[in-house]
DNA sequence: AGCCTGTACCGTACGACGTACGCCAACTGA
DNA sequence: TCAGTTGGCGTACGTCGTACGGTACAGGCT
């Protein structure tokens, strides 16, 4: 009997029109767009109900006429942005074999993650199942259709690739956020951290970590290199998938 | 000149003793333990300064005598929990080849993610570099040492495996959280969602997504199966890593 | 013993957040 | 014209992290 959240209400909103204006021209679309702009510019935590309302020149509580609450607004933001992924002409299937197709899928998801650093903060939990999310699932599955995988394997392979991309994109977003919040870029941060770390670790011995950590941080000039992790991991995963095909 | 956050201060705290009590017996250790208990039981958002203080019977602001702020408390929570991973006797290296070693690393990380569902919410951004994090890095790298990989490859392979585990663990944590917050388990959620989704998707056509989605949800009885994704992805990744060795 | 100074502790308050509630004004249909 | 409905929104509540300033205890000095 807990009326916490009604999946039906959210779904209807997600698949609704978003453009029917109220008395003062307020639309769902305008609310969602304003929220996305705020999140793009300053991170998801900047997309508060108050600031979204200010941005479109309405009272804070007017938003609730068009959107049940913050959670549903988040879902709308996510599904809207997923619409950027495959715009009809860029169908990921039919561009060579499954390998090129999967690579394209990974690259598109990586791109959208870079463009909207808040995206992965807004997902998680149950999937959203808006129109663009379903379209995405369909488009991505098609690159794996008819090449000898079972339906379950198709889903598993796609999940694996997307999990990888989400992981490295989240890592990238985390670094950008850390830089914004600390005011220190990667090199400044390391210059501030390294001497303290060395002093505090004196006495302990970490031979392998010391050697490998030094090698990596010299090459990356950073505490991590998500772009490299993206490419390296994708190659390894695609090689591994190859063996499923036999 | 922005004095936002001082990496040195955090590091010193992380590597400090945590057990030196103040006038009323308050210690860093007690604060961190209380916060972890709250997060384990009710999620990271339950570990507020007020509730932590209540739990240990002190005033809210007394915590700030021992801990600079919420962010540093999070770091301490993370590093403390990472201490559970490898307790000396369970050294991941020296248990067969690299493949068994990597599998063990993945499983230990998966386990700790299940035990502390808030862990991945508390990480992200720059790495924490507390004693247990460094110990973890060293222990995990050792399973890849001396088997013909370059230092950079060692780091990349480990990152790949950990990114995978983090991704599926995050997915698992998301489902558990969704269940707690909505009061609906996976089957109830799907029973509430499916008919609405079908009605709203009428007219559109998603042949592959429909077929595959149905197959998966029948087998998993859920919107996703992180445990299966963990195992499937790990096998594929290990196969892919194999080709690096050659 | 008396006192001084540093610091552990903590009560209050501020500005953010999401949103419940209720009022007003503008539409709609009769 | 007037009643009923509904979009818009001002106020207020309970939450959060934490700045600030006061209180009272501990330890070192005379």
UniProtKB/TrEMBL annotation, chains A, B:
What is the top-level taxon of the source organism? Bacteria
Record carries keyword Transit peptide:
no
Q: HTH tetR-type domain: from which residue to which, for each copy? A: 25-85
Keywords for this protein: DNA-binding, Transcription, Transcription regulation
Q: Which residues bind DNA?
A: 48-67
GO terms (molecular function) for this protein are: DNA-binding transcription factor activity; transcription cis-regulatory region binding
Q: A GO BP term, please?
A: negative regulation of DNA-templated transcription
Q: What is this protein called?
A: TetR family transcriptional regulator
Question: What organism does the record attribute this protein to?
Answer: Catellatospora coxensis
């Amino acid at each position: 009997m807990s009326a916490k959240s009604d999946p039906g209400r959210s779904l209807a909103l997600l698949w609704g029109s978003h453009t029917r204006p109220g008395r003062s021209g307020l639309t769902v679309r305008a609310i969602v767009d304003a929220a996305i702009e705020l999140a793009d510019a300053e991170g998801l935590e900047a997309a508060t109900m108050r600031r979204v309302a200010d941005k479109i020149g309405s009272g804070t509580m007017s938003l609730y006429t068009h959107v049940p609450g913050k959670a549903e607004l988040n879902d709308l933001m996510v599904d809207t942005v997923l619409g950027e992924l495959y715009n009809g002409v860029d169908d990921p299937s039919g561009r060579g074999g499954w390998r090129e197709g999967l690579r394209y899928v990974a690259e598109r998801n990586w791109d959208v993650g870079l463009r909207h650093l808040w995206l992965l903060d807004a997902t998680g939990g149950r999937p959203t199942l808006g129109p663009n999310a379903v379209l995405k699932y369909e488009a991505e599955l098609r690159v794996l259709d008819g090449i000898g995988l079972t339906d379950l394997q198709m889903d598993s392979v796609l999940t694996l690739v997307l999990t990888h991309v989400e992981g490295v994109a989240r890592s990238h977003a985390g670094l950008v956020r850390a830089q914004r919040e600390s005011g220190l870029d990667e090199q400044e941060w390391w210059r501030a951290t390294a001497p303290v770390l060395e002093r505090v670790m004196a006495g302990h011995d970490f031979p392998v970590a010391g050697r490998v950590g030094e090698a990596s941080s010299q090459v990356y000039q950073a505490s991590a290199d998500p772009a490299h992790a993206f490419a390296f991991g994708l190659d390894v995963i695609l090689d591994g998938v190859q063996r499923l095909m036999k």
